[in-house]
# Entry
Amino acid sequence: MTRLSGAKYHLPMKRVFSGVQPSGNLTLGNYLGALRQFVALQHEHECFFCVVDLHAITVPQDPSLLRAKTEEVAALLLAAGLDPTRMTLFVQSHVPAHAELCWILNSVTTFGELGRMTQFKDKAKGRKSVSAGLFNYPILMAADILLYRTHLVPVGADQKQHLELTREVAQRFNSRYGETFVVPEPLIPKVGARIMALDDPTSKMSKSSEVPASYIALLDPPDTVRAKVARAVTDSGREVRYAPQEKPGVSNLLVIYALCSDKSIQEAERDFEGAGYADLKRAVAESVIETLRPLQARYKDLTVSGEVHEVLAAGRRRAAEVAGPVLEEVKDKVGLLRA
Ligand code: AMP
Ligand code: TRP
# Structure
């Protein structure tokens, strides 16, 4: 498939797939690391975006909260600019092919490979009980991606290792059973792939954090954004300069400012020549507020219109249409007797 771009040359249209977990509050890190890319990609490629509720239940969730968050995340993705006429948005558990392919890929993935996943090690740390689902999590993610014969997977830097495993599983399946899956490429932004926590710039901003001051939620009102940014940890010295090792707090704020005001890091640094940390924080807060303002307004409209349900129903049909035949082909190749 090709698509005319700039009326001068043809860009090959690719398949894009990505997922977001409906756990916690979507953060500015999710937006800058992932959602912004989703919105841009829908204009160039055939995109599938999925609210991955089956991934979320690998750690304990309150059932009614999970249901509410699944809807909220879908609405936030639309509010961020995903257009139902340009992409497919759906809920993972609505398309059973994901869980079925996951089971089949369980037998193509090794225990050793899963044990090396750093996200598993991080998430398992400090838990009294670790579910088998948490261990197998990357296989379900591989199933999500491979079912759509995805070329590109826009994600933040924390998902790089999972993508490498997905590629490995795809190649192994293809060599064992014959060409079936596309081997996908990760698409990780150069700037913003790892937005750090405001209270600890050495760890990533995470929506599952128990400390709300560590993240900016996409639905935080302006005064909350101002208060959180004002309390953000900075570094010794006074100079506003991008130096992630030496000045992780200031560098994180500069990255946020640059992305939210559509500037390069160098331009952002220039804006604060001779200025202090307080000036930086004020500017960061205002740039974030302006970035979130249209998203929050659209979110409000969406929650009253009830449009999300229709979008998810159409998304489920379209996703099943694409995933179904791929799953059938896989079942056939591994030798399952057809019904
Ligand atoms: P999750 O919140 O784990 O469902 O992540 C959804 C998407 O947001 C994934 O592509 C993540 O890589 C990305 N993401 C999550 N946290 C951050 C962060 N702090 N900085 C950049 N990207 C992030
Ligand atoms: N594991 C991803 C995360 O936590 C979410 C995810 C699930 C995903 N399935 C996916 C991302 C498929 C990209 C493609 O961020």
In short: DSSP finds 13 helices and seven strands in the chain. The two ends are 33 Å apart (CA to CA).
